[in-house]
From TrEMBL:
InterPro entries: NTF2-like_dom_sf, SnoaL-like. This is Ketosteroid isomerase-like protein. It comes from Peribacillus deserti. Residues 8-134 form the SnoaL-like domain. It holds the Pfam family SnoaL_3.
Length: 146
C-alpha cells in the first residue's frame, strides 16, 4: 500500500496515527523500499523494507497482546527541505496506555533523525536514526531526559 504524502508533515502524521492504530501496512507506507535504519532497539542496523516489516510486526503484535495503545508525539521538530530531499530531527515521545482503563503505563522519549526523499512527487523516509543518551556510569540509555 503506497500513500501519497505531499508534505513532509503528512509522513509524520501518518507515522503517529498508524502506530496508534497498529496498522503495519500504513506505517510501512511511509518508508522507501531500500530503507536504512539505525535503531536503538536490539539491531545495529536494518536494511530494506522486508527486514523493517519483521520488526514492526513484532512491535505492533506485542502492543496488541499487552492491550496497549501507543501515542506518539513529536517535539522540538525541525524540518529542512528542498525540492527532493528533506531532513527532520526531533524528539519522539512514545506513551503507552492501557486500552481498557486509559491509564498511562509508561513513557519514553528518543531522539530521531529522518532523511526523506521525494519520489514521483511524494515524500518517503529513506533513512531513520533513533538514539538515546547514555549514562556513562551505568552504560544504560537515558529514556526520559525531557
Amino acid at each position: 500500500m503506497k500513500r501519497n504524502f505531499i508534505k513532509v508533515q503528512d509522513v509524520l502524521e501518518n507515522y503517529k496515527s498508524s502506530v496508534y492504530e497498529k496498522d503495519v501496512e500504513r506505517f510501512l507506507a511511509t518508508y522507501a523500499p531500500e530503507i536504512h535504519i539505525y535503531d536503538c532497539w536490539g539491531n545495529w542496523e536494518i536494511k530494506g523494507i522486508s527486514h523493517w516489516r519483521a520488526n514492526v510486526e513484532e512491535w505492533f503484535n506485542g502492543l496488541k497482546v499487552d492491550g496497549v495503545s501507543l501515542n506518539v508525539e513529536f517535539n522540538d521538530l525541525v524540518i529542512e527541505e528542498n525540492m527532493n530531499l528533506a531532513f527532520v530531527h526531533c524528539t519522539v515521545t512514545f506513551a503507552a496506555h492501557d486500552i481498557k482503563s486509559g491509564d498511562k503505563l509508561r513513557q519514553m522519549t528518543n531522539r530521531f533523525t529522518f532523511g526523506l526523499n521525494k519520489k514521483d512527487d511524494f515524500w518517503q523516509i529513506s533513512h531513520e536514526h533513533s538514539s538515546l543518551p547514555i549514562n556513562m556510569e551505568t552504560g544504560k540509555g537515558i529514556f526520559n531526559l525531557r
